[in-house]
glutathione transferase
Amino acid sequence: MITLHHLNNSRSQRILWLLEELGLEYGIKQYQRDPVTSSAPESLKAIHPLGKSPVITDGDLTIAESGAIIEYLLDSYDTEKRLRSTKGQALLDYRYWLHFAEGSLMPLLVMKLVMMKMPKNPMPFFVKTIAKALSNKVQEMFISPRLTPQIELVENTLANRTWLTGEELSAADIQMSFPLQASATRMDLSAFPNIARYLKQIDALPAYQKAVERGGKLDTL
Amino acid sequence: MITLHHLNNSRSQRILWLLEELGLEYGIKQYQRDPVTSSAPESLKAIHPLGKSPVITDGDLTIAESGAIIEYLLDSYDTEKRLRSTKGQALLDYRYWLHFAEGSLMPLLVMKLVMMKMPKNPMPFFVKTIAKALSNKVQEMFISPRLTPQIELVENTLANRTWLTGEELSAADIQMSFPLQASATRMDLSAFPNIARYLKQIDALPAYQKAVERGGKLDTL
């Protein structure tokens, strides 16, 4: 029996979606972020030493890291190989986006959020002014020159196809959903209509809607 | 014919190591970071739109993202399945560390480096004082509480085994080498003797030494 240890408003939403997409029976154990710090609760550390979500248990196995969980669930339960091609360019594309999501895109979005929050703590006015300037400088010098080409690459890819690996949904789309949803809350995506269309496509999927029903709607990513 | 587009002092070092470990014939095209900004040169964008390294070409194929390159090279050329288990806990462990390296550990190390550099730009003394305080605050509140348990997890894993997935080297060790080498330059690892031993093990491997010979020694990570 699979159990998903699910933290509200987290990367775990996509594992919930994958479980629904595969039509699996599973249990869900809910964890709530600290309302002040947004941290995951200590109780998650009983499941895996890093205390992060997503993490799943399946019988005796405990599996963490979104990408590794996705690979495990596909190996074990995607018997029709619907969500991961087994060869050719589609397999290469699947792997690229699977790794790109957390290896390239998400780190910049996390850093951007930390920088956006840095000047928001209580501090004297003149310190806040400097904090804002430093935050802008880091975003302008380090984050934006890397983030913009990445968003453009996603946009250009989606100009030619319905989903990231072709005309059918793959688990790479599930992995990419969270950073793209997070992007939409942290930057102006009005120049990227294909990403907007893609996010609406996701919202319309029955399995995604079930995931939202069970896990809660994502906000303040 | 495989060509590795290799940037000095980068994640690409481990792909070079993997190519040597697999005993493959390959070409190497060298790219140099800008000595002032440390950025990759524009010429890398001709190979892949993000202009990042590593990226390989193999015949008509262009493959980016370290984890995806590793999976591709193992699928195509690790015919004896020496560097990736095909089943059981060793496969799960391989996948965990493959994704953990860039999905969890490396983003924190990049953010730490950006924060360490933030107060080092030319600025008036009182601004520098505030920049240092803000950098320390981000490290103390966000980075360290996440980074320390991750380093501890690696240390504890290596207390029980020679390599991260067991007694034999796997490609997950190659993927993990760069963030651990980067950790050693950005934090005090004296309390983590197993990681120190592990990094020495890597340095002693003939294939790793050949990679250093061809790609240059890593420094100022």
